[in-house]
Design a protein that fits this description.
Blueprint (H helix, E strand, L loop, with lengths): L1 H73 L19 H5 L2
């Protein structure tokens, strides 16, 4: 009669041991992965900030160029009579000048 009880206890122990062992192995793999990622985070963080800095600089330069282009267009050749792009209008003839 003792034999079936021992076999049942061994099977229960085997099932519990398998579950605990697989959970332990999973935890060890997770811990190793965590340590690996933890070591790479500072480098990745530095790289991300560098990319953000480069993108912000490019956006700033483009914005400055756009503002300069708008200012140049707003102050265009119509405001300065001596601008090289203007063509002179018809001049008054001497007879028209006398009538003034």
């Amino acid at each position: 009669m003792e034999r079936p009880e021992i076999v049942a206890l061994l099977l229960v122990g085997l099932l519990i041991g398998t579950g605990v062992g697989s959970a332990y192995a999973r935890a060890r793999r997770g811990w190793a992965d965590y340590q690996t990622v933890r070591k790479t985070v500072p480098g990745a963080r530095r790289a991300a900030w560098l990319l953000i800095k480069v993108a912000t600089t490019k956006i700033g330069i483009i914005a400055l160029l756009l503002v300069g282009a708008v200012a140049y267009a707003a102050a265009g050749p119509g405001d300065d009579p001596a601008a090289p792009g203007r063509t002179p209008g018809p001049s008054a003839t001497p007879s028209e000048r006398q009538g003034r």
